[in-house]
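Subject: design request, 426 residues
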């Protein structure tokens, strides 16, 4: 008998390009289709329960259908879903965000992380009246032309689009340097007088997981300050996940602009861009930097975010230590299993995120990450899936824990990793 997912995928492919609404959701031979979720689990259309470590690519820090969030959203559904006029809820949420992220003096609510980084970059350009952006290779900031670039092969730093249809005229204004290389950043800044901003994921969660080396973030803060260049921390993943005040609280660095998303709404579409007052005041209508969206600040997402932030703040003394404890437990145990099996590997972990790489050299940037054996990772992914553990299907994503994971989940997960690593070895 055909699985329901297989049948649904056949139907989906006829209507939706590649059968998916975001490319990372696709994997061979076909993705499973989800019918519902609760806590740490997803159920597929065939009724199979899977323990979820993809967690909305990091969004579901509090787990699926967290009761505090669902009940506040249900109440708001009875009051209205979209007003396109301001609400007091937006003030409440802005106060909460600014309370957690003191580097933000003002904040605008948007819908997606990509919208937030697009606005952050436009703000940096509008504020400095300069053109070029510097990004670090392997960092992901959304699917828009300024950031969907990789290092060009000829000229060392001018970006080229990673997408057909991406404009080279735009990509060439993004300069690409290696993560964890502040010297390279300084050289590029010295060579180019037209730098409007530097954007970085303070912990790189889009190349598997890559941690900033000691002093990397403080060095890039020093360098950007010296040259009067706004520093953008893209905390779409790390915001609320690494600590209530994100990576900037953890590393004690004050960026000029910050973007948030994912865990802010814990499963509802909301993101934010905020920063220094004189930069944020550039936004229209008072300023001249344009940003707009019909659904920005919609009361459903705002309600969900208020409830998420309040819950994370209330539970912070238990929540973050628990996530870290569980993550260390998993990462160390997987490391031991791989060592016992003599599989060359690296494990990077931090807070509630980890990833395994099949390579014998430390993974510290794009180049070292690319050296890991993604065929082995693919074997690992499929074996885990067979044993009902769902991690993101790509080596270049991260394994995310949520507050809903239990000790029992971890035990099942470790058993599944054990079998999966054996299949990698064979
Ligand atoms: C660090 C980072 N920034 C921005 C984005 C884009 O967010 P969205 O997918 O909500 O547009 C992502 C998405 O994964 C991300 O990981």
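Subject: RE: design request

Done. Sequence follows.
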């Amino acid at each position: 008998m055909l699985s329901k997912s297989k049948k649904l995928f056949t139907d989906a492919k006829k209507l939706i390009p590649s059968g998916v609404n975001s490319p990372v959701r696709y994997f061979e031979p076909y993705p499973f289709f989800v019918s519902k979720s609760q806590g740490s689990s997803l159920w597929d259309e065939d009724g199979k329960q899977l323990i979820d470590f993809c967690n909305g690519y990091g969004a579901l820090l509090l787990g699926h259908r967290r009761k505090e969030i669902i009940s506040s959203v249900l109440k708001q559904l009875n009051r209205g879903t979209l007003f396109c006029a301001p609400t007091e809820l937006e003030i409440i949420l802005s106060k909460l965000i600014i309370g957690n992220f003191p580097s933000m003096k003002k904040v605008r609510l948007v819908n997606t992380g990509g919208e937030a980084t697009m606005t952050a970059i436009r703000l940096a350009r509008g504020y400095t009246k300069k053109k070029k952006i510097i990004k670090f290779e392997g960092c992901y900031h959304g699917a828009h032309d300024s950031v969907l670039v990789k290092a060009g092969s000829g000229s060392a730093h001018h970006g080229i689009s990673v997408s057909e249809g991406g404009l080279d005229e735009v990509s060439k204004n993004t300069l690409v340097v290696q993560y964890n290389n502040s010297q390279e950043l300084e050289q590029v800044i010295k060579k180019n007088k037209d730098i409007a901003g530097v954007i970085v994921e303070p912990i790189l969660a889009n190349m598997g997981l890559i941690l900033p080396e000691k002093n990397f973030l403080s060095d890039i803060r020093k360098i950007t300050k010296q040259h009067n260049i706004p520093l953008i921390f893209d905390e779409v993943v790390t915001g609320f996940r690494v600590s209530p005040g994100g990576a900037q609280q953890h590393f004690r660095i004050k960026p000029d602009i910050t973007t948030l998303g994912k865990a802010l709404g814990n499963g509802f579409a909301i993101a934010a861009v905020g920063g220094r007052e004189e930069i944020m005041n550039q936004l229209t209508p008072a300023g001249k930097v344009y940003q707009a969206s019909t659904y920005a600040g919609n009361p459903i997402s705002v309600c969900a975010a208020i409830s998420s932030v309040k819950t994370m703040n209330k539970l912070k003394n238990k929540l973050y230590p628990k996530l870290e404890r569980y993550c260390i437990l998993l990462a160390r145990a997987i490391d031991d299993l791989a060592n016992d099996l003599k599989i060359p590997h690296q494990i990077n972990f931090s807070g509630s995120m980890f990833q395994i790489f099949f390579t014998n050299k430390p993974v510290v940037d794009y180049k070292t990450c690319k050296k890991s054996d993604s065929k082995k990772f693919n074997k690992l992914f499929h074996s885990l899936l067979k044993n009902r553990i769902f991690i993101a299907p790509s080596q270049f994503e991260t394994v995310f824990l949520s507050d809903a994971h239990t000790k029992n989940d971890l035990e099942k997960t470790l058993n599944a990793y054990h079998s999966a690593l054996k299949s990698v070895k064979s």
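The longest helix spans residues 299-340.
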